[in-house]
Each structure stands twice: as structure tokens, then as C-alpha cells.
Write a structure and sequence with these properties.
mainly alpha; 13 helices
């Protein structure tokens, strides 16, 4: 500790803000001094300079207490710079290299959180979303008593909601494309996949419309069955959501479907 204080005082860290002094430190072969300077840059929030020095020191201090500090702070630097891809890599590397560190649990959570931060909006490819879900579940299994458990659960809910939203939008896309068969199958599968979905009311409404249009565009032999399914969806919506904003429209759809069914009696 005394030696470190002497180094800090002798260097006068404020002077290291100049490019020339930093370049001389980069070229220095004194790794102990370089480490102290890097840590000071980190503590002062100068993550760019800290990273450059940490990168030079990785090999020299690997599998040592200082190597542990360097790896963790490298991840932190990238995180604070919002480079979540590389930050996640270093957090994960930290948990593998130093699994018994006091910071291993936090690093494991942060690795998953970095994947969460890279999860795109629901309309885009969800590869990062699935990765984040896998990592969050792994974290919760590994640290079932973690103080971050509630936060992890909250993040997991957000990600699952995003996947649900993507599936719902895909169902509606099939309907807009007039691919009624695919739309019906997708709506039915969604209700099975997400039994507690918040979109149940909308799905019943969408299915009622889809079945009616499906029947209208079907051959005669298939129309009766599809009009009946339309009425069933309208009745289900009315029963489950008696105050639904869609009832006026679905009541009209059901009336038209029943009138069509009279032709089959």
C-alpha cells in the first residue's frame, strides 16, 4: 500500500492527461506502474485510456489477483462505454477464469444483462433475445439466492413479452396477407404457447374475423364449418370479455355468419 501511494504521488496523475505522457506509459516496461496508472484512469472514469493499458497488462497478470481486477474492470469499461457485445464477452470470460471470485456472481448477471441490452425490438431477428433468456435462466439456476434474482425475473418477463409480441404480430401478418389457414393455425398455436397471454381478447376478435373471411373465400363444402367456427369465436369473446370494445363489431360478424348458415339448413 505504501509503495502504491508513493507511485501515485510521484507520478502526479493529472499530468497524464497529455498524449505524450500517456504514450510514454504505453511504451513503459514497468508493469507495476502501468497497472497503477490504469487503475487511476478507471477510477476517474477515463475508460478509453484505462482499456488501452489493461489490454497491455492482460497477459502479464493472468490468473493473479491483479489479473482478476483487470479482467473485471475491462468488462466494466466496455459496459460503461455501452459496447455491450464486448462487455458481455469479458464478463463471461471473467466467470470462467475466476469462478470463485467475489465478483463472479455479479459478472454472471452482467453477462446476461449485456445480452438483454442487445435484444432488439420485436419486429427484428430475436437471436440475442433467446441468448439473453438462456443466460438469465442459467444465472437464476446457478445463483438461486442472489440479490439480483428479482431483477433477473423482471428482465426475463420483458424478453418473453417481446417474443410473444413478435408471434402475435406474425399471426396478424398472415391475416393481412389473406393467408387465412396460416393465420388460424398461428392464432391457435399462440393460445397454446402463451396460455396467460395479455392478447387473448384481441386474438379471439382476430380469429372471429379470420374465420369469417376464411369462410367467404372457401369452397362451398368448407364454408359451413368455418362460419360455425366464426360464431364460436364471437361467443367466446362475448362470454370471456362482456365489456370488450370489440363486441359491437363481433356481434355484427356473428349475425352475418348465422345468416350465411341458414343457407345450409
Amino acid at each position: 500500500m505504501k509503495n502504491r501511494l508513493l507511485i501515485l504521488l510521484s507520478l502526479g496523475f493529472i499530468a497524464f492527461s497529455s498524449c505524450n505522457d500517456f504514450n510514454r506509459m504505453v511504451k513503459s516496461t514497468d508493469n507495476e506502474m502501468k497497472y497503477e496508472v490504469a487503475m487511476d484512469y478507471y477510477d476517474r472514469g477515463d475508460y478509453n485510456h484505462a482499456l488501452q493499458l489493461f489490454d497491455l497488462l492482460q497477459a502479464s497478470f493472468r490468473n493473479t489477483p491483479r489479473g482478476e481486477a483487470i479482467t473485471y474492470r475491462t468488462a466494466q469499461c466496455y459496459y460503461f462505454q455501452e459496447d455491450y457485445d464486448i462487455a458481455g464477452y469479458y464478463y463471461n470470460r471473467f466467470t470462467q477464469t475466476y469462478p470463485f471470485s467475489k465478483d463472479a456472481e455479479k459478472a454472471a448477471f452482467m453477462s446476461a444483462y449485456c445480452s438483454y441490452k442487445q435484444s432488439p425490438e420485436s419486429g427484428l431477428d430475436q437471436t440475442n433475445t433467446f441468448t439473453a433468456i438462456k443466460q438469465l435462466k442459467g444465472f437464476m439456476e446457478r445463483y438461486p439466492n442472489s440479490d439480483s434474482l428479482d431483477r433477473a425475473n423482471h428482465l426475463l418477463t420483458n424478453l418473453n413479452d417481446k417474443l410473444e409480441e413478435k408471434d402475435y404480430n406474425m399471426c396478424r401478418l398472415f391475416y393481412r396477407m389473406e393467408n387465412y389457414s396460416a393465420a388460424i393455425t398461428s392464432f391457435e398455436n399462440m393460445l397454446k404457447k402463451y396460455p396467460n397471454t395479455l392478447h387473448r381478447e384481441e386474438i379471439l376478435y382476430d380469429m372471429a374475423k379470420t374465420y369469417y373471411d376464411y369462410a367467404e373465400n372457401s369452397i362451398t363444402e368448407k364454408q359451413r364449418e368455418r362460419y360455425e367456427s366464426c360464431v364460436e369465436q364471437c361467443n367466446a369473446l362475448s362470454y370471456l370479455y362482456p365489456n370488450s370494445k370489440y363486441l359491437q363489431e363481433t356481434n355484427g360478424i356473428a349475425a352475418k355468419a348465422r345468416k350465411k348458415l341458414e343457407n345450409f339448413k
